[in-house]
Amino acid sequence: MKGLVQFITDIRNSKEQEQEDRRVQSELVHIQKQFQQPNLSGYHRKKYICKLLYIYLMGHELTFGLSEAMALAGSKVYSEKSIGYLALSLFYQTRTEAVDAIFETIHNDLAHQKEDFVCLALQFLSSAADSDMYSRAFEDEVFNLIRSPVSSSLVRKKAVLTLLQLLKIDPLLVTRHSGLVSRVAPLINDSDFGVSIAAVSLIQYIAKLDLDLCTSCTTLALEKLHKIVVDAECPASHMYHGIPAPWLTVKLFQLLETLVPNVDAMPLDQANMHTVKTVIQRAISTAISQAPLMSAEARHTRDFVLLGAVSLAAHVDPSPDQSTIAADALCQLLQSAETNTRYLSLAALAKLAARNDGPVLVTINKHIEQIFSLLRDKDVSVRRLSLDLIYIICNSDTVEQMCRQLLDYLSVTDFAMKSEVAVKIAVLAEKYATNATWYVTTMMKLISVAGNYLDEEVRQRLIQIVVNNDSIQAPACRLSYSALKSGTYPESMVKLAAFLLGEFGIQLDVPLVQQFELLYNCYFQTTVMARCVLLSSFLKFYVHEPQLRPRILELYEQESNSFSAEIQQRCLEYAKLVTLPDSSLLNLVVVDMPPFQSKISPLVSRLGNVQQLQQSFQLSLPYAARSTSSLERPKSPKKPAPPRPRSRKNTNSLMSPSLNTAAASISRTDTDDSSRSMSHFSDSHFSYNSTANPSVDHLPAFSPNWKEGYYRLLHYDQGIFYEDSLFKILFRLRRNHAQLHYELSYSNKSPGTITGLTSEVAANLINTEDPGYVVKIIKHPESTITANSKSVQIFDVTVRKPYLDREVPSINISFVCGTLCQYKLRLPAVVGKIMVRGTPLSKESFFTRWSQVSSLPGGECQKVIRLSSPMQTVILSRTMQLFGFNLLKNIDYNMHNIVCTGILSMAAGGAGCLMRIETNPQDARVLRITLRCTVSGLADILVGTLTDLLDNI
Amino acid sequence: MSIHFLIALNRQGKLRISKWYTSVPDKQKKQTILKVHRLISSRDHQKQSNFVNFENQKLVYRRYNGLFFVMAVDVQDNELSYLEMVHLMVEVLDSYFNNVCELDIIFNFYKVYQVLDEMFLSGEFQETSKQVVLDRLHYLDNLE
């Protein structure tokens, strides 16, 4: 295509932006003119479309060319068709006017005998499909291409991935093709590795939607892995720098992690466990033992396979020996000359260490010097990771060494990391200290070295601990005294010393007068905040040492004229306080510091990454107990501390016994309180129950405007569930026997992006042992929704047996859009929602059943309703029909009455339901409902629902 | 566990190839490309790793002469495997164009898309064998 080359050359030769723009404009005019020619050849059309594409890639917007691109896509010539599809996939996105024509082209190509055309259509679908319009139109054809025995491997791998794209935009697809997994699963083991890796991706995606569908795939995935890793079965074409199918191996590792989300809850069977272990061990040992003389590619590949294996090892088999092997392998990578490898192995080690105990940490600790040397790495992200790792692997045996090294490091570390390092030293020292004096000495050093960039919390926490521990008060005073005396100290040391000496100065063998002199000398060199602390401290000196009183009073009077309001007010108040004739108030103010009762160090919230890392494993692992909260574990008699190898020696020596009991008693009362309030709660439930008045006023607080959507969808099955200025929720319900299949679609109406969207479907069941319904989440909405787009949430509510209307699930939604927005909505998943129309009955059989059911105790409910506004019989009938009833004609002698039937197929057994509504022609506000049901108690509930509905529409 | 987008940029930030595996409006694409360029060109390529976090995703990138190849992947995913995949892609381009340079990519951009469509689909790995991909590409070149 000479013209294209010439055009690109011209663009590249343009000296300035203006010249380039002119060239583009003239070309656009030219192309537009050419496109109007009646018999433009395919070649020319292709050339011009290519030029348009180039212009598009340069960042210009295109306003024409769609129909020519479509004509190209419909061409019989491969190269033209290929460009046509490319053009459509690149700038088709926002145009929907030609959907039908494009769909027809795709249908034709998918069914074409030329395999290359089929491939082009699949490739187009996989990059252009962005709504369920595509999935509904093409899923059958694409699935057939996967299934068909005549499809080549080439077509099959493309079809598998295209189906994955359709599934991404429309997860419900999985429910429409029940045979999907059973068809795709065997492809994992396909002899063509392209087909295999495609199938692995698809199965992994389905497993994330619904794990139960894919349980059978574990064995298949393991078989394939065993073949590659242990038996080295791999075609030469898929060897990459001497390593067999590395990407497929890693994908299979990841698939296994998805298929076995929690080994403890869902253990692998023995044979599979054995295979997993063999594969992992082989993968790791092969990686370690490879010849040192390798290309960079081979080294990278070896490393990523190793990292995948280690991740899987930590996931499926947290046994010490497996993890130790993994840790050892990773530590070897720490010496790598490549930043990438060091970075990744540190990250993997941190993961491993966060979820393991004992032997693994010992193994990692063997390489501690190496890890410390990485604190001085050239890459700041490597430095951060190694700091995190050091924090995680530290224990009471190593804490002294680690803190010493970190303190050394603190003086050389770059400014951005100083505060991080300091916080970690402070937390480690507190968490693992076995010797109180050592703790105080370390903290004093920390404050001397890093005082200027230290968070206030570090100092505050140190003070809390000193106050609570008699034994370290004197050493703490001595250390802070000599720190001030040395002449060079950060301001936080002044604040610390001011507090300590004021509070515990008497315990020091230095006269109070000398202590005061030292502090007084600091006074005029410090900032307002420190002066405030000093002034309060002097008040304590005033009480303890009569000799100092005139000087302190003089300072207060002098500073009463200070420019700073903070200082001025303090001095005025203190001066007034000390000159009062009666000193009882003074003594009351300057009473000894009571012990602090906060159990959790405020520093914990400053841990950042490390904390997230540790917490992310807490739910799924038995080691959960070893969380950061062990910082100050109260020795509560209710919770005997489980044996934790890592913190064995952490005897909490820092906390004096008195405080421990205090903390324990606090925690006890906490629990008592919560249990009490729980019982209140359930009491109120019962009383509410007995009144049997399903008035919504007693319900938990829902967001304003919840009612409109709730009542709309109590009888309709689709519509707007909620709407305000920020976003809108559309609602779609499919009834499938006992199953209510919900699809909520969240649309962003705001001009900005919605981020952090979470939506939780919370069951409000009274009886959780034998629940009335079960909620199963199929798809969560995406957490980010850009302006004008939407995201879908899918879940099922399976009705097992009757439950009250006020037990229906609530939906708790929260997201950030400018500010944090939270909603609590009520899902109209009442038991009546599963009703399907009963069979039409003749007058005779209706009355036979009517009387049969009446003998059942609790089978009937009759109620007179007075509506707030009159309701026409036609509307009433229509509402009942929408609700699910089948209206029967000519049964009742009174034509104004409504007679209908319905069937509820609950999972625990079905129920038939007959209803008669008598209306009053004189007063359309009064109704009498008589409802009979074959399951006891259900009639009451249904009448309640209907009353509630009729009252609110 | 898939690729969100794949782009090739030169050092000045000129876009050479962009392939999006999630549906994103054009305007946002442009912004993202600007941000990616700003982020990556500011990093030290001698000392820093080839991975950097970016808006809830992770960029895996590598520079070949004046051209950056960037993939955005999930934070939890195996970064190094994508980095090596970038390399495999460059190896394929190198063989296909017989010693590839930026100019080849500029003048044959539509062929580069063809290469991508043979290696990735829906943001997933489709074919990881250089030989299989090259055979297919040569076969397609011989079609009319």
In CATH, what is the class of chain B?
Answer: Alpha Beta
Low-confidence stretches of chain A: 616-698
Q: What global shape of chain A is seen? A: globular
The pLDDT mean of chain A sits at 81
Question: How do the strands line up in the largest sheet of chain B?
Answer: 2-1-5-4-3
CA distance, first residue to last residue of chain B: 37 Å
Organism (chain B): Pichia angusta (Yeast)
Protein name (chain B): AP complex subunit sigma
Pfam family, one (chain B): Clat_adaptor_s
Keywords (chain B): Membrane, Protein transport, Transport
Characterization of the model:
The complex is a heterodimer of chains A (953) and B (144). In chain A, 54% of the residues lie in helices and 12% in strands. Chain A is of the alpha+beta class and 953 residues long. In chain A, strands 11, 12, 13, 14, 15 and 16 form a 6-stranded antiparallel beta sheet that branches. Chain A starts with a helix and ends with a helix. The mean pLDDT of chain B is 91. Chain B has a single domain (3-142), classed as Beta-Lactamase, CATH 3.30.450. Chain B has 5 helices and 7 strands. Chain B starts with a strand and ends with a helix. Chain B has helices spanning 26-41, 79-96, 102-107, 109-119, 130-142, and strands at residues 3-10, 15-20, 51-54, 57-64, 67-74, 120-121, 124-125. Chain B is globular and about 40 Å long. Chain B has 144 residues and is of the alpha+beta class. At the A-B interface, helix 1, helix 3, helix 5, helix 7 and helix 9 of A face strand 2, helix 1, helix 2, helix 4 and strand 7 of B. Chain A: Adaptins are components of the adaptor complexes which link clathrin to receptors in coated vesicles. Clathrin-associated protein complexes are believed to interact with the cytoplasmic tails of membrane proteins, leading to their selection and concentration. Chain A: Belongs to the adaptor complexes large subunit family.
